[in-house]
Amino acid sequence: MRISTTRSALLAGAVAVTLSATALPAAFAAPSSTAVISEVYGGGGNSGATLTRDFIELANAGSAAYGLDGLSVQYLPGAPSAGSLWQVSALTGSVAPGGRYLVAEAAGTGGTVALPAPDATGTVAMSATAGTVALVSGTAPLTCKTAADCAADTRIVDLVGYGTAVVREGSGPAKGASATASVARAASLADTDDNAADLTAAAPSPVNAAGATSGGGEDPGDPGNPTEPGTVRVHDIQGTTRVSPLDGKAVTGVPGVVTAVRTSGSRGFWIQDTAPDADPRTGEGVFVYTGSAAPAVQVGDSVLVSGTVDEYYPSSTTQSVTEITAPKVTVVSSGNALPAPVVLDAKAVPSQYVPSAGGGSIDALPLEPSTYALDLYESLEGTRVQIADTRVTGASTKYHEVWVTVEPKQNPTRRGGTLYASYTDQNTGRIKVLSLDPAAPVPTANVGDVLAGTTSGVLDYDSYGGYNLQATALGTVTDHHLKREVTRKQRGKELAVATYNVENLDALDDQAKFDTLAEGVAVNLSSPDIVSLEEIQDDNGAVNDGTVGSEATLKRFTDAIVAAGGPRYSWRYVAPQDGKDGGEPGGNIRNVFLFNPKRVGFVDRPGGDATTPVAAVKTRKGVTLSVSPGRIAPASAAWDDSRKPLVGEFRFHGKSVFVVGNHFASKGGDQPLHGRYQEPVRSSETKRVEQAKEVNTFVKSLLAADKSARVVVLGDLNDFAFSPTVGALTDGKVLKPLITTLPKNEQYSYVYEGNSQTLDHILTSPGVRRFDYDVVHINAEFADQASDHDPQIVRVDVNAPEHGHGHGGHHGHQ
């Protein structure tokens, strides 16, 4: 695994060198006539650099040796923030009269020439362009962060600020430092305490105490830059399992052609062997990781790569990416033809998803690319692939990625997506597509559109969805003109109840978000009588100051609904205890009921608060609530750090209807479908099952008091219709999940990683005898969305006779 940190040429910093107390001047305001910082270079290992490491060089202008035992060099960002700290590199030995002393700092991934053998070695990743270097007594980190404060620190012997450094001596910092230039003092070593005057830009020229210059001191066994291929090929590195047999080992002169280059994020390039072996398990492509340095190669270069093989795990539960790190690259020739891409289509991809390891790691299992889709993709990791005319199953995102399927007939939804049908029926053809060209990102696309023509690139892997195509050539989007749905208006005798997750709405959000969500309620949902909202935050959102009310948020939202043509809604909620309901820190997320008082009445029963449980109360006229609105068992451990269900008693056409708004615990922490552990553990499920049992127990208490009670349980349950969560919620057949009444290809309200699935639900008790149910698709399938959830609605005939029946279906759309 990659555990070292990389450095960027954009980092700005300062370095201080510490000398013995016997040699210490009063402050750096007094110029030093003995030890000084003679040269500073932060571009080592950067793109374009020759030297592989940063360095600080000291010099002694005096006539006696200058002792360095117990002294240090330290580094601070050039524009230090409150959290910036000086970084310390300890020194030993001494600087001879007229001599030099070399401190080697962090190495980059570029450059070809090593420093001469250093006299001291640190790990500071210095900036190439802006920073500060100082001579200080002792090894305790400095604390000053301004030029004035540092001038007052009597431990500092000398100080050099370069580029735009805030901490510097005199009129300004030394100018001209870069990836290829250091700042160096004149041969006279004159120190006037004015960095701009004393140091100038020059080619880096490190000298150590022995007088050696750059070009010596290479590490033993350094592969250098071979001109002939070594004995290891890419397929030897990839091996027949997910983990390289050469993990952690050095390789020399690995041949390949550069097939793609990534210049942002995890920088590097891919190479592919043009002489593959006959084993379909052993991949022929591999990623060469260059860290902060921009890759110094071009597509079509024939290269020899030396470095260390590494299995990089994006997270603890994902699969790994095989890489060559700390590379040294020899370009043998340029303009070479690329290997033909592997075509990924319905014929190529197996129908089974991944082998089982009984919940354990699949890392060591031999790959079976003809049997399992994830084994096929792993065998092609780093290899050129091609797809054509693929259906979009997950809309393009703000991160410029889009999900497509190479198996167009696999579980299609009515509107063009791919349905996630069960834990055992994975959609093997899903692939995420990104562009390697920042100037030509993935075009905007909605579910059901087609990425037409040919898209090609290299197959990669990340923690955000697994295998993905890093495109070097993109197809074009064929727009299938997906429309946002509008459900029909409820009839006079129908009570319309909806659920809508409005994605962390608070009063500080832009008006555009309020307006779009409001249009969804007023127009697309045709102004339901009751709307159960999830993810309403307190009035100042993530500001964590003890605010728990949502009045301003709900006033803006209901005003926007009126402006969109909807009714003037009233609202009810129970404010949570500060910081007790999970969600975004400081947001105090909660469930809320909106209701149209001209159509439906709310029965207010005082006493409900964040800690008081609601109870069913049996009366001669049926069941009522002890408090309304109220919360279900708020003291139960099932709701620790989680949203508590909101219960309200409504009256419609003389009948009571009990609505339970829910937002169960999220799936955060579950192992990914594409991860290294198979079958994946759904650790978050335990909490949701506990929550479902609490709601089920409450519904049973209502029905025990009145078996004909009309109960609507709805909200974001964060789980599937086939999950144990929904099973626990419906235990005893007290609730019917309405999503199962729709045709199979319409049973979804959410799209995640190219899978159309159901996290939101409406369930009804047996007392709801006639209903019309609809999922209204206005968000999840679209690149432009106000929420990542689609709302749902049920229209209930509260006066339906016992022989009535319910139904659902897309016929409810206009």
What does this structure look like?
This protein is mainly beta and 814 residues long. 9% of the residues lie in helices and 31% in strands. The protein has 8 helices and 43 strands. It has a 7-stranded mixed beta sheet, covered by helices on one side. Strands 30, 33, 34, 35, 36, 37 and 40 form a 7-stranded mixed beta sheet that branches. α5 links the parallel β26 (494-505) and β27. The radius of gyration is 33 Å and the shape is globular. Mean pLDDT is 91; it is low at 1-13, 17-27 and 215-222.
Task: Name the overall outline.
Answer: globular
Terminal residue distance: 54 Å
Derived from helix and strand composition plus strand pairing, the structural class reads mainly beta
How many distinct helices?
A: 8
Give the helix proportion (percent range). under 10%
Sheet with the most strands? 7 strands, mixed
What would you report as the Rg, rounded to the nearest angstrom?
A: 33 Å
Strand content: 25-35%
Mean pLDDT value: 91
Number of strands: 43
Numbering strands along the chain, what is their spatial order in the largest sheet? Answer: 28-29-27-26-42-41-43
Low-pLDDT parts are 1-13, 17-27, 215-222
Compact summary:
This protein has 814 residues and is mainly beta.
